[in-house]
Amino acid sequence: METYSRGEKAFSFVNYLLLAILCVVMMYPFFYVFLYSISDSVAASGRTLTFFPVKPTLYNYKVVLTNSGIMNAFYISVARTLVGTLAHVIVTTMVAYALSKPYLVARKTLFVFFMIPMFFSGGLLPFYVVVVKLGLSNSFWVYILPALFTTFNMLLAKVFFDQIPKSLEESASIDGAGPGRIFFQIILPSSLPILATLSIFAGVAQWNSWFDALLFVTKQDLLPVQTLLYKIILESQASTVEQIMRMSQTDQQTTISSESIKMTTLMVSTLPILFIYPFMQRYFVKGMMLGAVKG
User: Is the dihedral of CA 178, 179, 183, 184 positive or negative?
Assistant: First the structure.
């Protein structure tokens, strides 16, 4: 039976205590938002919430989830996350797989070409001009095309592909499989950890993105939920909140406050990522370990 000295026990106790305090500090703001979202609007606005909701109700969620403007923004976020993540993973892994082959023509030159933008950016103005000149403004594809590729994710995938046994590809090649078939039917099914890692990185980035819509999208029906949330919370636009309340088909609009709309919309925009992450965590950790960039 393993025994621990008094110093080791004290050290472990302090570590666990600090981690518990850090966990509470980080989780309480989210918990507060949740409490406010399930509290009666009028009752919550008249007192300070601590650990329990005031007159618990799901009416705030009913108003938000039946509002056409918020739900349309939610669907846009879901669509850009699904399409953007799939496109990003395919493009990034294809580039990484090609660069992992030593016989690729101009391999070192291409590698340097991809590395330069990772350290030096052209800036916001050139990016804005390029996007506008390509005709992507007020288009759904403004969310997808600029985010197709990132060098960091490509490096993770490349190191992972370098570790796949060459015998897999050689045996498939002997059987008559071409490069495309080898990649899609052999390499990708064997790369679930790194695919999960890239999917989480790209998915979270797409779901949380709001600045691109603020720059390039003026159509209300193309705004994602994060940009709509920005307009509600950070800009404090009373007109936006009033529009949401007016569009809500309910006979009890007087019981809904702008603060409740903000808190409930924030919860609706956060919960999907929180629910998805636990199912991909084990693949994510394994992919980060296997695809870590070596010095």
Answer: negative
